[in-house]
Design brief:
about 300 residues, 8-stranded mixed β-sheet, 2-enoyl-CoA Hydratase, Chain A, domain 1, alpha/beta, globular
Length: about 300
């Protein structure tokens, strides 16, 4: 063993050599190309301060910012059969599930939690788009139903953050059955007289839009979110017409009466807390800060955002 080669040289290199920088230290704004410091973006709920671009945010990260003092309790999701159809495309479905669970730290695309916003106890359900595109399968469907059942049991309002590409093709008809099951769960919540607020994030599409995501008492959309059933390209090919500028963006849907309001992620907590307190007949402070509710306006086709 050469003591100089194996010990002295590495020690000198570590002191004088170039340090490796983290890959995600700076993040590029997809709209303006501006470089934003990672910590600044994280502290601003993954909303770029200069442009207001809403980047995608992980489910647990969203819950941390949404609940008072970041204090919440995650509910355990029900167990379901894994790969009931023995599906395989480029890789086995079981392998795909294993990879996404390792990458995200989640069991599936839906996270349920209980906590309080501005002192009001609620149940929140969040879809994480990073888990197979937030797709709705048996596990996600069971988790959503569990969220509604918990809200009914605890007699709390329900807030759902939708982010999905639609039903999960690897589970076929079993995934489509979740549309009906979650719709029944929404009906049970409303029969119990409990408020249901839906926050539509980017993107919310497919069967999710055709079921629980558009059945809320109030629908709030994040700025620039894509919201729709079929993709714009499919619609254009079907009707053989050019779609309007900004079609399926949250601002366009608000202008045409499909959503109630477009609210920045920074203001969501206070807005939802105020709305829920009104719906449950709880006293609301007379003086409140001005909300960042975006007025109806034609959306730019190049405007994009993340969930």
């Amino acid at each position: 063993m050469n003591w100089i080669t194996n010990f002295v040289r590495p020690k000198i290199n570590s002191m004088l050599g170039r340090r490796e920088m983290p890959e995600n230290l700076w993040i590029k704004d997809p709209e303006t190309g501006e470089m934003v410091f990672h910590k600044d973006l994280e502290g601003n709920q993954w909303v770029i301060p200069s442009s207001g671009y809403h980047m995608k945010i992980a489910a647990k990260e969203r819950l941390k910012h949404f609940f008072d003092n970041g204090d919440f309790e995650i509910l355990e999701n029900p167990k379901v059969p894994i790969d009931p159809l023995k599906f395989r495309d480029e890789k086995r479905y079981t392998d795909r599930l294993r990879d996404h669970r390792a990458k995200t730290g989640l069991d599936d695309a839906v996270v349920n939690a209980t906590g309080a916003i501005e002192g009001l106890p609620i149940v929140a359900t969040v879809q994480d788009f990073s888990f197979i595109g937030g797709s709705l399968g048996m596990a996600a469907g069971e988790a959503i139903v569990k969220g509604f059942e918990t809200a009914i049991e605890l007699k709390r309002p329900m807030v759902l953050f939708a982010a999905s590409g639609g039903a999960r093709m690897q589970e076929g008809i079993l995934s489509l059955m979740q549309l009906a099951r979650t719709t029944v769960a929404v009906d049970r919540l409303k029969e119990a007289g409990l408020p249901y607020v839906v926050v539509l994030t980017n993107p919310t599409t497919g069967g999710v839009t055709a079921s629980y995501a558009m059945l809320g008492d109030i629908h709030i959309a994040e700025p620039g979110a894509i919201i729709g059933f079929a993709g714009a390209r499919v619609i254009e090919q079907t009707i053989r017409e050019k779609l309007p500028e900004g079609f399926q963006r949250s601002e366009y849907l608000m202008e045409h009466g499909m959503v109630d309001m477009v609210v920045s992620r920074i203001e969501l907590k206070h807005m939802i807390a105020r709305l829920l307190k009104i719906l449950v007949n709880e006293d609301v402070a007379e003086e409140t800060p001005q909300m960042d509710i975006l007025p109806p306006q034609p959306a730019k086709a190049e405007s994009r955002a993340g969930a």
